[in-house]
Every structure is written in structure tokens, then in C-alpha cells.
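Final report, closing paragraph on structural work. Over the funding period we assembled a curated collection of sequence-structure pairs, and we close with a single example.
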Amino acid sequence: MATSRTLSISFLAHLTNDGAELILPTLLPSMAHEFNLSFAQTGFLGGSMVVALGFGQILMGYLSDATGKRRLFISLGLVLLSIGLFGISRSTSYVELILFNLVAGLGASAYHPVGISMISELFKDSGKGKALGLHGTGGNIGMAVFPLLSGILADYLGWRTPFAVFPALGLIIAVVFFATMKDPARTERRTPLRLVMNQKLLMITLSLGFASMAARGMTVFFPIRIDALGYSSSQIGALFFLMFGAGILGQYFGGYFSDLHSKKHLVIYLSLISSALLLIPFFLTSFVLIALVVLVAGFAKDAVWPPFFALLTDHAPEQLYGTALGMFFSIGYIMASQSPTIIGIVSDYVVFPTSMLLLLVFGVAAALAIRRT
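Its predicted structure, as stored:
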């Protein structure tokens, strides 16, 4: 019963946390128009939350391991995320947008290392991949629904409205999580930090970083491309809904098959396939064709995460799951944060869709890195 409750409530927190991350990319075209941003400035704004996510996660993971107060860190993270989003809704300058986006990113940095370590500990004896896949579907539901609702709200009430409305949900989930969850029992056995610095874990982390660069680059610049084709914020939200909605099935099947087959091989194949599929929509103009490709790309892109997480926790000591996941996500997100900036700078000098070929480069690099484990 306790395992079911933990998985259910963590599912809701994951849904809210990850869904909130997609509000800004969905509305970037409208924000770029209002503040007259270049490709480089747009990329930096889109990547600024990811910078805070990167640097915050190793700290959150380590502190949660050291104190054992996991529900506190997750709840406070959701509160800080909500404050950052609301601040964006009130911003009047580019600098304010960056600052509040950093605040939101710091808040969002708490969930993944702490929440996934809870699930990994709870299901350490059997079915870890499946549990991580089911938990991952919560994040995908949020990433599917939040952009869709944000686009609709933006078209009728302006881009600031979603940033003002969704923080209320974040605060509610934070209170529910803190009031109903219990921290897992702590073990007194000490484990050296050097055990999370072995070569296999570092290569897995590097591979995640390259895969995240492909995913984040697409997430930030895909709305810009769709906007340039003349489609609305609602249609951008609908395409994200399809992408991350397909990822719900991707997360489940990725988790299911990671319990049955080689996690390493799954990561290699899915990294190559998903990066190629993420590139294709940038060279299409038909909304229907874009939607079809996005569906398949979303499935492949999100199927890779459960085997990544399971592979990492297979090679990390249980007492340092939070620290290992924090390092894993920190390096991954720091690398991912550079992707929009790199693509944005390149886009200011070459034809925009051509710069997106970097997505395929990142996918190949992810596959090559995981081969070394």
C-alpha cells in the first residue's frame, strides 16, 4: 500500500514539475516577438532554466542523501518553481525573464534526483525499470497537457496568463506531497563519494548529456520554426501534446523492455533513432506531416529515459542514489543548457533549419559515449 501511495503521489509531483518546464518553450515565439529577441537571445532564454536545473540537481541530490529529508526538498522545490513562473508573468525586461527563469529552474532541480532515488529504492528488488517507466509517464502527461493548455490560454488571454495560473497547481501539489508522504528509513552505513565517480557512471552521464542536448535543442527551437510557418500558440501546444503524449507510451515500453533486454543497447539504438526523428520536422511545412513525425519522435525520445535511469542505479550504491542521480542530471542538464545557445548562435549566421543538423550530431555522440560503458 505504501509503495502504491508513494508511486501515485510522486506521479503527480513529476507531472507538475516536468509540465511546468514546457510552458516557456511553448510561449517562446510570443515572448521573442514582444521583447524583439535574436536567435541567440531566444536560445539563451530557453536554456537559462536548464542551467539552474543543472547546477541545482547535484546539490539537491547530495543534501537529500545527507539529511534524508526528501519530501521537504521536493515540496520546497515545487514552491520555488511556482514563484519563478509567477515572476516570469510579471517580468517587464529580458533580464527579469532570465532571473525568474533561473529561479524556476532551481526549484525544478529538486525533483528528479530526489524523486527518482525514492522510486529506485522502493523497487530495488524487482520491477525497477517498469516502476521508473510508470513514474516517467507522469512527467510526460504534464509535458503533453501543460503546453496544450498554455497555448490555448496564450491565444485568448496573452502569453503571461499561463505563467500566472499554473503556479497555483504547483503550490497545491507541494502541500499535498509534504502532508502525505513519508521519508524512507535511513541507513547508517556510510558509502564513499568516490564510488559515484567511476568511469562507467561518468560515461553514462556523458551519454545522457548528449541525448539531452538533442532533446532540449528541439524543444526550444521547434516552436520558433512552427511560428515561422504561420501557426498559432495553440497549434504549437497541440504538437507538444502529441510529442509528449506519445512519450507516455515510450516511457512505459522503455521501462518494460529495460527489464528484459540490454539497457545499454536500448540507449544506443534509441539515441540514434530519436535524434534523427527530432530533426525531420524542421524541414517539413505540412502540419499533418509534422504531427505524424512528432508522434513517432516523441515515443522514441522518451523511451530512452527509463533504461538510462535503470542503468545508472545499477552501477551506483543505494546509499548514494540521490547523489549519483544529482550528478547524472546536473551534468546532463548543464550540457543540455548549452544546446539552445549553440544552436541559436549558429542560426544567427546560417539558414535556421540547417543549424538543427546539430541534433543528429548530439544523438550520435550519445550513442558513442554509452558504447564505452
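Residues 2-182+194-370 form a domain with the Growth Hormone; Chain: A; fold (CATH 1.20.1250.20). The chain has a mean pLDDT of 86. We thank the funder for supporting this effort.
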